[in-house]
Amino acid sequence: MFLKARILIGEIYIMCGIVGYVGKKSVVDILLNGLTKLEYRGYDSAGIAVSVDNKIEMYKEEGKLQNLKNLVEPKKDYLKSSTMGIGHIRWATHGAPNTINAHPHSCTCGKLVIVHNGIIENFKELREELKNDGCVFRSETDTETLAHLIAREYGKVNNLTDAVRLATKQINGAYAICVMHQDVPNTIVATKRNAPLLVGIGQNEYYVASDVPAIIDYTKTAVYLDDNQIVTLTPDSMKLINSFSVELQPHIETLPWESVSLSKMGFKHFMLKEIHEQPSIIRNLLSGKIIADNQPIKLDEVKLDLDTIKKLDRIQIVACGTSLHAAMIGKYILEDFCGISVDVEPSSEFIYRKTTTNDKTLVIGVSQSGETADTITAVKQSKKQGSHILIITNRPDSTMAREANSLIPVNAGIEVSVAATKSYMAQLISFYLLALHIAEIKGSIESAKLMALKHGLITLPEKAEEILDHKKLIQEIAKKYANFKNFVFVARGLNYATALEGALKLKEISYINATGYPAGELKHGPIAMLDESMPVLSIMMKGMVYDKILSNSEEAKARDARMIALTNSDDEKLNDLFEDIIRIPDVDEYLSPIIAIIPLQLLAYYIAEFLGKDVDQPRNLAKSVTVE
Ligand code: AGP
After folding, report:
1. CA of 20 to the centre of ligand 1 (A)
2. Is the pLDDT at 622 greater than 80, yes or no?
3. Cβ(373)–Cβ(390) under 8 Å?
4. Residue 12 pLDDT > 50, yes or no?
5. Would you say the pTM of this structure is higher than 0.90?
6. Measured from the CA of 420, which atom of ligand 1 is nearest?
7. Which atom of ligand 1 is nearest to the CA of 418?
8. Residue 167 CB coordination number (10 Å)
9. How far is the CA of 382 from the centre of ligand 1 (A)?
10. Could you tell me which of 497, 362, 344, 345 has the C-alpha nearest to residue 434?
C-alpha cells in the first residue's frame, strides 16, 4: 500500500542531458557547446542529429564528448548550413555505453529521430509489439522503442505533435524528449514527464535543454515545461499544448543566471579550482547574514516563525552522498543548539518505508543539484504529509527547489567536478546559519556561546586560506600513500561525518577502498583488518572526544597500521604516535568540520592526480544522480 502511494507521487528517473535548436544560426556548435555544459549529467557517449538539406544525419560516438567533437570536426564546413538539430549526452541505464546505444535513436526508415532522458518502464512490451508490426530495432535501449512508437503514430495521424502526444500516452516512466522528422522541416517537438526540460527563446530561434547552462550563453528568456505539456518549435513559432491538445499560454521567465564560465582558471582540474573557491564561498554566504556578533542572524529565506518553531517536535533531513554527510553535521548542531530531535536518513531508504513525518515535522532536503531523484521523492512524500519543506540547494531553479516552503540557496556557483567540494562547504555553512538562527529564535543557546560561534564563523575564511597555502605538505603525504589499496578514516562526534566525507572523496576519484568509521567502533570489528598495509587517518580535533580518539589511535598503531593525524592540536605526544601529521588552524570544536574537510579534499585530489585518474569525471559516476 505504501509503495503504491509512492508511485502515485511519481517516480523520477533521469540521467543524461539533451539539447535542441531550431532557428537561423548554424546548429552544430550550439549543440556541442550545450552538451559541454551538460557533461556533468553523464559522459558514457554522445550524439547529435542535424537536418542537412532536409535530410537527417546522425553523428554518435561512445566515450567522452571529446570523441564526438573529434568525429564532427572534419565535417564542420559541410554541416555549416544546418540550422536545426538535437543532441544528447548519455549516462547508460538500458544497454551498454557504446556507439549503437548512443542517442539520437531513429525509427526503421531513419526519418524520425529522438533524444531522451529517462526510462521507459514498459519498453519491453512495446518493443515486442512494435517488432511484430515490422519495426527494425538496432539498439538495446528503451529510447529506441519510443522512436518507433512515435513513428507509428505519425504514420496514422500525419502530424508530428499529435504523434508525440499519442505515443507518450502509451508509455510509463519518466522522460524528457526532443523529436525531429525529416518530412516536417524546421520543426522540433519536445515534451516531458518527471524530468526537467526548458525552452529558451531567442530572436527567430528556440533552444531546448535539460538544464540552464546549456542555453544561457544564447538567451535568458525561457519557459520551463510542466509535465505532459508538448511544445512545437519552428524558427518563428512556439506552440504549447497539454495532453488533450488544448493550447496553453507559455509562462515566460527570465533566467536569473549569468553566462556559465567553465574555465579552470589556471588550475589543472575543476576539483582543485573548486576546493580553492571555498574561502570566498564562506565569506559570501556569511556576508549580510552575520552582521556582528551581537546582532541576530538574518536568514529571511527561512519562513519559520517562533510559533511554528515551537510546534516542531522533530526535524527530518533527507539527502544522498556528500549532501548526506553535510546533513549529519546539520543534525548534530541542530540538536545541540536548538534542542530539537533530528533524524537524518539517506533519501533512498526514506522513500521505501512507512515514515511518520507530519505537520509538526520540519523536513530538510539537501542537494547540490536539486535534481537527485530519491531526495525529490522523499521531499514530495513529506510535503503530502503536511510537513514544512526547507530545501538547501545550490540550484534554486531546480525541481527540488520548486517544492520548497523555505529555500536556502547555498550560492556556491556551478560545480563542474563530479566530486562535490565547494557545495559541501556551502551546505555546511548554511546548516550553521540555520541552526544558530533557530536557536536564537528559540533562545535555546547561551548568548556567550552564540556570540563566540558567530565570531568563529567570520574568522573561518582566513583559516581555510591558511590550509590552502600549505597544501604542499598534503601533496607530499598523498604521494607517499597513493599506492595503498585501502584506507581508513576515523573520528568521533561531529567529525565522524568528516571521516565519511573524506573517505567518499578518496573512493570516488581514486577508486581506493576507503572507509570512515566512528573511532570507538574500530575495536568492534574493523580493527581486525589493520596491519602495515592499512593507513589510518585520525581526525583529532581538540575538545570533548580528543583523548578518546587518541586512545583509539594508539590501539590502531599497536596493530601496525600506518598512522596519519589531522589535528588542530600542537600536542607533542602526537609526534610519536603518528607517522605524518596534517596540522590545521585552531578553531572551536563545533566549527571544526568546516575546515577539517579541506585537507581531506586535497589529499583525495592529490592521490587521484598522482595515480593519473580522471579527477573531474571519475568512472561510472555522473554529477546529478537522477535515477533510483
Ligand atoms: C559527491 O562527491 C558525489 N558525487 C555524490 O555523492 C553527491 O553528493 C550525491 O549524488 C548527491 O547529489 P546532490 O547533492 O546533487 O543531491
Report:
1. 27
2. no
3. no
4. no
5. no
6. 2
7. 4
8. 24
9. 21
10. 362
pLDDT in tens, 165-210: 999 999 998 899 999 999 999 999 999 998 889 999 999 999 999 9
Residues with CB under 6 A from ligand 1: 320-323, 367-369, 372, 375, 418-420, 508, 621, 624-625
Sheet holding 112-120, edge to edge: 105-106, 112-120, 173-181, 188-193, 230-234, 237-241, 247-248
Catalytic residue among 16, 135, 178, 338: 16
Residue 623 annotated among the catalytic residues of the structure:
yes
In contact, 459 and 362? CB cutoff 8 Å: no
Q: 503: closest CA among 352, 325, 359, 354? A: 325
Q: Is the pLDDT of residue 10 over 70?
A: no
User: 244: burial class by Cβ within 10 Å (0-12, 13-18, 19+)?
Assistant: exposed
Q: Whose CA is closest to atom 16 on ligand 1? A: 367
Atom 6 of ligand 1 has which residue's CA nearest to it?
A: 321
Mutate which of 43, 211, 324, 369 for ligand 1? The one with the most ligand atoms within 8 Å of its CB, which is 369
Q: Return d(Cα 16, Cα 44) in angstroms, integer.
A: 9
- Ligand 1 closest atom vs CA 322: 8
> Which pLDDT band, with edges at 50, 70 and 90, does 6 fall under?
very low
CA distance 69 to 76: 10
Distance from C-alpha of 554 to C-alpha of 401, rounded to nearest angstrom = 46
What does the chain come to in residues? 628
Beta-carbon contacts of residue 524 (< 8 Å; ≥ 6 apart):
none
Ligand 1 closest atom vs CA 319: 16
pLDDT digits (tens, 9 = 90+) for 436-480: 999 999 999 999 999 999 999 999 999 999 999 999 999 999 999
Of the residues 380, 383, 507, 623, which is catalytic? 623
CA 321 – ligand 1 centroid, Å: 5
Of the candidates 7, 413, 34, 403, the one whose C-alpha atom is nearest the C-alpha of residue 200 is 34
Question: How many Å apart are CA 97 and CA 445, to the nearest integer?
Answer: 54
25 is catalytic: no
SS (H, E, C) 298-337: CCCCCCCCHHHHHHCCEEEEEECHHHHHHHHHHHHHHHHH
Quote the ligand 1 centre to 320 CA distance (angstroms): 6
Residue 210 cell numbers, joined:
535539460
**Side-chain half-sphere CA neighbours of 485 within 13 A:** 5
Cα 527 to Cα 423: distance, rounded to the nearest angstrom: 33
